[in-house]
Amino acid sequence: MTPHNNTTLRQIFSLPVIVAALGYFVDIYDLVLFSIVRVPSLKSLGFSGQALIDNGVFLLNMQMAGMLVGGILWGILGDRKGRLTIMFASIFLYSLANLANGLATTLPAYATLRFIAGIGLAGELGAGITLVSEILHKSIRGYGTMLVASVGVSGAILANLVATTFDWRTAFVIGGVLGLLLLVTRIRVAESGMFRAMDDRTGVRRGNFLALFTDWLRFRRYCNSILIGIPIWFVVGVLITFSPEFGVALGISGPVSAGNSVMFCYLGLIAGDLSSGLVSQLLRSRKKAILIFLFLTVAGITLYFLQGGQSPAFFYGVCGFLGFAGGYWAIFVTVAAEQFGTNLRATVATTVPNFVRGMVVPITMLFQLGRNYLSLESSALLVGAICLIAAFLALAGLEETFHKDLDYFEEFL
């Protein structure tokens, strides 16, 4: 291996990248844990039947609403106070919320804690991707964000293992403890040089969230950055979260476990994030890589609804393929970060993925509304088609950012 390759590997596997990856690992653990323990936790609180779906949607929406609020809060603070500040603060908040979630005994308490945890969970990924994008050279930053996402989504596997080994309350407590332990590793991580340089300049306005809505071209970039990611969370928020119900509706030959569906989906996501990152680097294009994986998502959703009468093992295989197809998450967030200047980058990179996650609220509401007039499968297909069409149109409207120099500022009043 040449000295140049050694230097490149050291940069990719540097402490900030590793810490960002571990932070996202804990983030994903906590984020998907509720999808895994939804049924047993609600049953332990006295709910059954249709109430498991209705209250499950309510709690999921509370968590996602918290992420919408947190995305704006942490994004603004990230551009004003620094990327590391929000990485520390957000993980501390969601760790405490998950510790408390293990003690919840009523639905209102459960919902309140999911909302607070959602606020905390909102800060980790955007801050990590922003930091990694700014400290790595443009020729290799795709590898860095690929590593963050690939390590991060494997947190879902740990969540399933913990949830199947321990009581749901203990699983939440373990997530909180992991988050607090992670704070220790943050001590030696340095702030982004681009942010420090901006901090030394006067007259540069930072973290102005409203500036995203005061200029049409900037607003369009922002909306397109959000829309390209919504098919991922349609899959996770509807097809995977409610996989037991879809298993029955599709005539799967045995019971389907939500925990196994999540685990296989996220195993696919790990492979997908690695593959999409490599494809992006090989094609030297973010847009082409995302386009390929959007077509794979169309294929995966089609297969999901044509598998009637298959075994649970086949169903889990389809969940894995859907996860692989949705593995452009890292590139999607990287594209959002690369679309904007240093003084607005953390705001965008933090709010965009959380707005996508928050889109689970209208997606599930539309899904529930559709069930009043359509079958379970038809309602999901209609919502999925809307999400995919929006993503294809949004991707066409974004600029290619693979070679883009990120050391610049957005100009606004």
TrEMBL record:
One Pfam family cited in the UniProt record for this chain: MFS_1
MF-aspect GO terms: carboxylic acid transmembrane transporter activity
The keyword Transmembrane helix is assigned to this record: yes
Cellular localisation: Membrane
Any one cellular-component term (Gene Ontology): plasma membrane
Transmembrane segments: 12-37, 57-77, 84-103, 115-136, 143-162, 168-189, 222-242, 248-269, 289-307, 313-336, 379-398
Keyword annotations of the record: Membrane, Transmembrane, Transmembrane helix
Membrane-related topology note: Multi-pass membrane protein
Keyword hit for ATP-binding: no
CDD domains: MFS_SV2_like (cd17316)
Domain of life: Bacteria
Domain Major facilitator superfamily (MFS) profile, residue spans: 16-402
Classification via PANTHER family: CARBOXYLIC ACID TRANSPORTER PROTEIN HOMOLOG
Name under which the protein is recorded: MFS transporter
Species whose genome carries this gene: Thiovibrio frasassiensis
